[in-house]
Design goal:
about 0% strand
């Protein structure tokens, strides 16, 4: 049985694609660094080292958008793209895990 087909990504500019991709990579790295969710210092260290480069890519994507006159972030469209790319699950790794019920 085939998995359900994902909805198509909305139409995005190249800079918006870079923005979304870099943002999600930063989220993934922050999730690996999150002390409430990480288990090994080495993995967290490697993620922290990579974070610098991904944050720079995120800044660069936003700079390109700004320089091209894209002064507004189209939140509805970008939110749709984030959902298609599993952004909600990826963002949850940055937050605190639920408190255990004792």
């Amino acid at each position: 049985m085939l998995p359900p087909e994902l909805p198509p990504l909305p139409a995005l500019t190249r800079a918006e694609c870079e923005f979304i991709d870099s943002y999600l990579e930063v989220l993934d790295l922050l999730g690996r660094i999150n002390p409430a969710r990480s288990t090994h210092t080495y993995g967290a260290l490697r993620a922290a080292q990579a974070l610098v480069g991904r944050a720079t890519a995120l800044k660069d994507a936003l700079t390109v958008m700004h320089m091209r006159g894209e002064s507004e972030v189209h939140a509805t469209t970008l939110t749709e793209a984030l959902r298609v790319l599993d952004g909600e699950r990826r963002a949850r790794r940055v937050t605190m895990p639920p408190a255990s019920m004792s």
